[in-house]
Amino acid sequence: MTGRPVRYRDMGQVGEWFGVSGKTVSKWRTRYADDHPCPEPDAMTGEPPGETPGWLPDRENEWRAWHASRPGQGAKGRPKLRRQPDGDQPE
Question: How far is residue 28's CA from residue 67's CA, in Å, rounded to a whole number?
Answer without folding.
Answer: 10
